[in-house]
Amino acid sequence: MTLVEKRVEHSDPIHIICAADARYGAYAGIMISSVLAQNQPGCICCHLLDDGVQSKDLHRMARMARQAGATFDVYDIQQKLDQFPDVLKRMAHYSRTAFGRLFIPEFVPNTIDRMIYFDCDVICLSNLRELWDFGARVEILAAVRDEWVDQDAAHKLSIGMPIDAKYYNSGVLVFNLAGWRKRNLSVQLLDHLCSTARTLYADQDALNALVWPEITELPAKWNVLISSPKPGEAEQNLSNAANIHFCGGFKPWHVGYASSGGPAASTFRRAKAASPWRWKLPDFHLGRVKRKVNDFLAARFG
User: Fold this and answer.
1) CA 20 to 30 Å from 240, out of 182, 219, 254, 296?
2) Quick check: 29 and 122 in contact, CB under 8 A?
3) Given the DSSP bridges, would you call strands 215-217 and 141-145 parallel, antiparallel or unpaired?
4) Radius of gyration of the chain (CA)
């Protein structure tokens, strides 16, 4: 479904895509807003994998894209995801929309040969033309190495990767859609997930297990995580970030994130304030509140 009919007048438009459900529609919108703010008018084509996003959020995204001279195409993936209930049960704490990125080559028109994928918890801080041009040299997929999981030798062995292989984060990806379709990788990844009892990092594990030798490594700035296993490195990385990825369960839109010193809280606050969701209230993270209360009781009463 195309909510914005006006097409982008640009010789080489940049195609970006994300996936969201009803809970994450606003945050997908804030992410897209940050991309539009950092790039020239008329050069971005926005795509959304829709797993029940609220209509008010869809219309806000469409209006925002139109005002920026961008296009906005929506693909309903609910029925597709419904076909894999057993796989989705094994996705641990991940939203099932994370699984949706495997279907990007299936839903996106064959006339589009590459695509930049963003998780909804990413904020763009840079023009994407450099990343887009880099994508022209990618054979299958490009990603940034995940510093946390990459050092976990036991986990890599558990999913069939060599210890010295690089493990990549799937929060920002550059797809060569033609190469992906030619290899029929979506079917291979689905078969892998269907035969796996449980995945710790959902489809990210599947991508690394099956495609790691063919993943092109992106410069780290394109997917900077808010934390690092190396002391003091996170702050330096964030200062040079082209995209900031708010990985982890405690998000910058949760109550208490900023007041508890959450990394890059001001970056998210500025991106939100510049978007149509500027007045959206913070979400209440019940699980974190429970942990805080339990920690307090344990410290107070032993």
Assistant:
1) 254
2) no
3) parallel
4) 19
Domains and CATH numbers, the chain: 14-301 (3.90.550.10)
Q: How far apart are CA 185 and CA 175, in angstroms?
A: 12
With 0-12 / 13-18 / 19 or more C-beta atoms within 10 angstroms meaning exposed / middle / buried, residue 203 is buried
| Structure tokens, 70 | 């961008």
Question: Which two structure tokens, joined as six digits, stand for 241?
Answer: 């970030």
Report the distance separating Cα 57 and Cα 74, nearest Å. 12
Contact 68/44 with Cβ under 8 angstroms? yes
Q: Which two tokens stand for residue 170?
A: 């799937």
φ/ψ of residue 193, rounded to 5: -65, -35
How is residue 288 written in tokens?
């974190």
Q: Comparing C-alpha atoms, which of 134, 235, 117 is closest to residue 173?
A: 117
Report which of 148, 121, 163, 161 is spatially closest to residue 262, judged by C-alpha positions.
Answer: 121
CB 69 within 8 A of CB 8: yes
Rounded to whole angstroms, how far apart are CA atoms 29 and 32?
5
**What are the backbone angles phi and psi of residue 271, rounded to the nearest 5°?**
-65, -40
Angle, CA of 81, 87 and 93, to the nearest 5°? 95
Residue with tokens 């050069």: 43
128, two tokens: 């994407």
pLDDT tens digits, one per residue of 224-242: 999 999 988 999 999 999 9
Task: List CB contacts of 241: < 8 A, sequence separation 6 or more.
Answer: 125, 126, 221, 224
Answer for the pair 32, 44: CB distance below 8 angstroms, yes or no.
no
Tokens of 45: 């084509």
Other beta carbons within 10 Å of 137: 10
Residue 14, strand partner residues? 44
Among 3-12, 17-26, 66-75, 172-181, the minimum mean pLDDT is found in 3-12
pTM listed for this prediction: 0.91
Tokens 């990343």, residue?
A: 131
